[in-house]
Protein: Lipoprotein
Amino acid sequence: MKQPSGPTIAALLLFGVTLAGCASAPGPADTPSTAKADSGLDRLERLTLNANRCWFKSKDPAFAAYSLAPELSSFSGRPRFLLVPRGQIEARPLLVVEGRSGSGAIDTYGPLMNEPVAARITADLARWRSGANGCEA
Structure:
């Protein structure tokens, strides 16, 4: 049997080292939880689900004139959901609930924040942000 030459051995060693590098554990930047924590997406997704369940699916009369328009996949790093006039998803938003990348804060703004329902919106969002998922008004 013929012995492998020097260049062949070197190529095999280089190939083995390359494969070993591919098998290493992912670093902190590679973990999916890092990206989620920074984007605010999880937080806004949970707020949107709670708003949909508590304000709309429950047929809450305070929100009967509105529709929910989620915009969670934002390339700006600011996932959000909107309340618009019922059945008019393309209309100008009456409420915007928006997250910020790298922050636990959310911004709420729009004409509804000057209406009596604003206190309810603020209380519900604060409760949901603290981890509760209930619909109690």
